[in-house]
Description:
Elements: E1 5-7, E2 10-12, E3 16-19, H1 26-36, E4 40-44, H2 59-62, E5 69-73, H3 80-93, E6 99-102, H4 115-127, E7 131-136, H5 140-149, E8 153-156, H6 170-179, E9 185-187, H7 193-201, E10 206-209, H8 211-214, H9 219-239
Amino acid sequence: MHDLWSLAGKQYSSRLLVGTGKYKDFEQTRDAIDASGAEIVTVAIRRTNIGQTAGQPSLLDYVPPSEFTYLPNTAGCYTAEDAVRTLRLARELLDGHSLVKLEVLGDPDNLFPNMPETLKAAQTLVDEGFDVMVYCSDDPIQAKMLEDIGCAAIMPLASIIGSGMGILNPWNLRLVIDAVSVPVIVDAGVGTASDATIAMELGCDAVLMNSAIAHAQDPVMMAAAMKHGVQAGRLAFKAGRMPRKLYSAEPTSPTTGLIGSPAR
Length: 264
């Protein structure tokens, strides 16, 4: 399926973005990424070694930036100041890399975004030349505010990070999609392939996930399932589903001209 999409001036064919944490080792990380077909991989700078810890195994050796687009993120940050500092470090470690994922959390239990701090950090990062993809609430008003700041992509949560609860509020996601012109990427809450399909059927440009793959009983197999789920949802969205009709039976085959039917 030739269906490219654009992010920060670059085109991609895969609409599945995957995380690199929570796997048993870097070998399994690479196997799952390959099975997913993902071209963009997100990296938690505070939790994953990409050169900041000398002498330790580095993700760079298994998932080289020459093969994948890195998306350093600010997982674990609770203030705009910490998030900005973390992404400045990422840019230094990755030789000036500008595409980043901003997330500023508000609560350690539910991991919902702190939107005032998120907006503050987004403004600073955009002013410093970063291409900011931003984790946010499924609020179309704040999504539009983030677009107006200059963010490269809006990433509303489908449900709580790591919950696997799926798409809990499809109406809000649809409102976000309609409110902005930059890519909308579901971030957080996906549990299985059907969740990814629903997100794409709603009209999202892509889906990002980590736990749904890494915590599966067979992460590599689940990665392949997610790849096909995203592709199926995208095809269904482009095809346009039939309308829903209550109490309106319609046979799947023509009823005129049947043998023995009365003449009309």
